[in-house]
Specification:
2 domains; single chain; 83% helix; 3 helices
Length: 90
């Protein structure tokens, strides 16, 4: 029984190797390679990531300043509409 087992293992391994090679060299293999390449390209390097984080922090600061200016302008408009506080003469 053992004398038949070794050749069967060799033939089975050979057939599986050839089959997998043919499949991976075809469209399925190309699609898999494209997917893996896209996945690795989706992760920006550390320098780009740090640059984006810095830019987000700058934008947050600018947004805070704009919100403060808007609040100030709203307070001025409310004061102008308040009848107790005289506005500029028209």
């Amino acid at each position: 029984m053992m004398e038949f087992l070794a050749p069967m293992v060799v033939v089975t391994t050979l057939i599986l190797t050839v089959g997998v090679t043919v499949i991976l060299r075809g469209p399925l293999g190309r699609a898999l390679a494209d997917r893996l390449a896209a996945r690795s390209a989706a992760h920006p390097d550390d320098g780009a990531l740090q640059e984006l984080r810095h830019e987000v922090e700058d934008l947050r600061g600018a947004l805070g300043e704009v919100q403060e200016r808007l609040d100030f302008a709203e307070r001025l408009l409310v004061k102008r509409r308040d009848p107790e506080i005289p506005g500029p003469a028209r």
